[in-house]
């Protein structure tokens, strides 16, 4: 009976959340907006501007599937739970109780995700993401720490139903990885993961040391958006240094046989990217250039995003001294000995369940960072109005 009472209380809480969400969504406006955009698409000159056409289609898809239909689905799940509770009051049924609990957990998770998405106001937040992890210094501890972070982000991505592709991997000398780049495909991957950009510090007893002393190691995380057709700019060939090499790690039929791996360096900034997981040299070159454009676009203070906002389609020079690499800023520490704690140094949010964090449960840090970011940039109200 106590378990049933707790479910009832949670259902009431979620009902109030959905009532507030309905006001934010403005379903009547959404319906009218979709009808208007359908009329725009029907115009014979719709595809004359491909970038604008793409943005229109994206808005329709988002409005239909991530606002209107998603809200209706939440209401349906909640009604199913309420119906199950009514039956459970008449007679005990363990299977029905388990089903109600499963639906409740699912609804809780989806509403939590929606609440976080309310904080995403930048138009690029909806894009997928490239995520690069680099062991800060050579050594087994740092390389294994980079591998632990790779596992953490893969677990997080799987729990959010993102598609994760390996773009580049450089294996460690003894264990772990020196660097790895992931392509995380799915809506809002960049908006959520941009909070992870920075240096992550691990403190623990080193399994690679014979003296059983605490050891500190670091790994850097870089995150940039996957650019789509609506964003197009050229990088002058004179600013690029492109080399191919034979990939020496694990791989498919072309690994260790042909020079399929490709490394691209942007000479003015020194930014270097590598792709070694595609089947051909041409595919690896295209992927490496896509990642380079992504990093240049997202680069703070001196990035291509600023230039594009000014209507410039080609940037010939970026001064290296203008670049501030966010990936070098210490943002979070993970302590595994003599006690367990994970603390975000920007928001001061912390938890003692370090094992859960390393298993991918990092949403509490993401949410706190986005809340802080919205407060400092004064866009919280706009984000709530858009219900993103």
Describe the overall structure.
This protein has 388 residues and is an alpha+beta fold. Helix content is 46%, strand content 19%. The strands form 2 sheets. An 8-stranded mixed sheet has the order 2-3-1-5-4-9-10-11. Strands 6-7-8 form a 3-stranded antiparallel sheet, with helices on one face. α1 (2-25) runs parallel beside α4.
Features of the shown structure:
388 residues; alpha+beta; eight-stranded mixed beta sheet; three-stranded antiparallel beta sheet; 11 helices; 46% helix; flat
Short description:
The protein is of the alpha+beta class.
Question: Structural class given helices, strands, pairing?
Answer: alpha+beta
User: Number of DSSP helices?
Assistant: 11
The secondary-structure element order is HHHHEHEEHEEEEEHHEEEHHH
Instruction: Note poorly predicted spans.
Output: 250-256, 314-325, 378-385
The end-to-end distance, rounded to whole angstroms, is 37 Å
Largest sheet: 8 strands, mixed
Bin the helical content. 40-55%
Number of strands: 11
Shape: flat
